Amino acid sequence: MPAPYPGAMAGEFDEIRERLEAIAEELADLAIIRLRESIDAGGDELPVDERRLTRARRAVEKAVAILRQPDDGDEADW
């Protein structure tokens, strides 16, 4: 069985990228829920959970962007 990552073709990452996109959406939804809960409770600061969720969403979105990039044949990241 060939190794799934070194020299992988672009289409091989599509399923992972799609799952990461869904996770990013879930994280965004949770962040919005936290903001609404804070507003409803009369809070005047961003909830700590919302900040953490937003940071996690950005990290996942970076991974999605990396998986969209064409393979440049550089295996130095391994």
Secondary-structure class? mainly alpha
The fraction of residues in strands falls at under 5%
Using only C-alpha atoms, the radius of gyration works out to 17 Å
Q: Care to count the β-strands?
A: 0
Largest beta-sheet characterization: none
* Bulk shape: elongated
Distance between the termini: 19 Å
Task: Tally the helices.
Answer: 2
Q: Which whole number gives the mean pLDDT?
A: 82
Name the helicity range: 55-70%
Uncertain parts: none
Along the chain, the helix and strand elements come as: HH
Short description:
The chain is 62% helix and 0% strand.
Attribute tags:
78 residues; mainly alpha; elongated
In words, what does this structure look like?
The protein is an all-alpha fold and 78 residues long. Helix content is 62%, strand content 0%. It contains 2 helices and no strands. α1 packs antiparallel against α2.
Strands, helices and their partners?
Layout: H1 14-40, H2 48-68
Helix pairs in contact: 1-2
